[in-house]
Design goal:
Strand 2 (58-61), helix 2 (71-83) and strand 3 form a beta-alpha-beta unit. By secondary structure, this protein is an alpha/beta fold. Helix 1 (30-42) packs parallel to helix 2 (71-83) and helix 3 (96-106) packs across helix 4. It has helices at 30-42, 71-83, 96-106, 122-128, and strands spanning 8-16, 58-61, 87-88, 111-117, 165-173, 181-189. It has a single domain, classed as Rossmann fold, CATH 3.40.50.
């Protein structure tokens, strides 16, 4: 083993894309665009409960199908731009084997990656990175999850009006040649207040010190 090649932890934060309406086609609504800007600000502002080590090192989304929704990519692109990163998009939204392989390979040791995707696929994404079935609260994306300061607009439609949740998966490995193992799941909140410049709240609220 390399000297100092000890245990490490990695975090994946799964975000649903921002708001859509029946009029927004394949794109985000204005509220969804504002959420994307809020995410970009609040995920580059130091340590939070969502980001114990501060800024993420990897940003990923589902590949954009021709003529289909670009919302997941559009939700995380402002964040990637602010971090000077490319959005990693190697996988179709329903190619879970591809997702599992790529996400585990991209997960940084003692760091964080942010994943923007469609909500209906989230449970399958978790399974693809090794989350066991016993986490029964994570077998379907929530039907609703309004932030503490902003109710979702009346135009949101479909099986879920939940846009503020973050599914956070924490992994551990013994050394650089070990496989990542899931050690914890949590459901967090973005705390979006309805504007691009809303103060970073809930699990995006700043913490005094980062973990080192």
């Amino acid at each position: 083993l390399v000297m100092g090649d000890g245990p490490s932890v990695g975090i994946m934060n799964f975000l649903r894309h921002g708001e859509k309406s029946k009029d927004s086609g394949t794109l985000l609504t204005l509220d969804g665009q504002h959420r994307a800007e809020y995410i970009a600000t609040c995920m580059t502002s130091g340590a939070t409960d969502a980001l114990p080590w501060g800024n993420p090192q990897v940003v990923m989304s589902s590949m954009v199908r021709v003529g289909k929704s670009s919302r997941p990519r559009d939700t995380v692109t402002p964040l990637a731009t602010k971090l000077g990163l490319q959005v990693q998009m190697p996988c179709d939204k329903q190619d879970f084997e591809c997702f599992g392989r790529n996400a585990l390979a991209l997960l940084p040791a003692n760091g964080t990656m942010v994943i923007g995707w469609q909500h209906t696929e989230m449970p399958s994404l978790l399974a693809a990175v090794g989350v066991p079935d016993r986490y029964t609260n994570f077998q379907a994306w929530p039907e609703a999850c309004p932030s503490a300061s902003w109710p979702e607009p009346d135009y949101v439609y479909g099986s879920s009006s939940c846009y503020d949740a973050i599914w956070q998966v924490t992994f551990h490995k013994m050394n650089s040649t070990s496989a990542w193992k899931v050690v914890m799941l949590d459901s967090l909140h973005e705390g979006f207040g309805g504007a691009a410049d809303s103060p970073c709240e809930q699990d995006f609220a700043p913490k005094a010190t980062a973990i080192v």
